[in-house]
């Protein structure tokens, strides 16, 4: 696992250091502006795929409930997204695995 993860992690850390060093460069600013729409489209596509998978696997009621709970926790209660993700994993691992097995 280390041989798989380490090279990518090291390359990413190095790239972030280079970008930080040249963050005021017009080339880097232009590059980051061009990458943002690509990332947005990729996130939209990933959300569409995962949403379809969850609707098929656990049904629309559970999917909407989890999405509403996540929205409420992050938007209203200002809970950190990482904690919401961990809570969703726990819900899926403990609750859904028991009731949908």
Helix content: over 70%
**What is the terminal separation in angstroms?**
30 Å
Main beta-sheet strand count, sense and barrel state? none
Helix/sheet category: mainly alpha
Mean pLDDT: 91
Low-pLDDT residue spans: none
Assign an overall shape: elongated
Record field, number of beta strands: 0
- Report the C-alpha radius of gyration, rounded: 19 Å
Order of helices and strands: HHHH
Instruction: Give the strand content.
Output: under 5%
Key terms for this structure?
mainly alpha, elongated
Secondary structure layout:
Blueprint: H1 2-21, H2 26-58, H3 60-76, H4 81-99
Helix pairs in contact: 2-3, 3-4
Report on this structure.
- It is a single chain.
- With 101 residues, this protein is an all-alpha fold.
- Helices cover 88% and strands 0% of the residues.
- It contains 4 helices and no strands.
- α2 crosses α3 and α3 packs antiparallel against α4.
- The longest helix has 33 residues.
- It is elongated.
- The mean pLDDT is 91.
Offer a quick outline of the entry:
This protein has 101 residues and is an all-alpha fold.
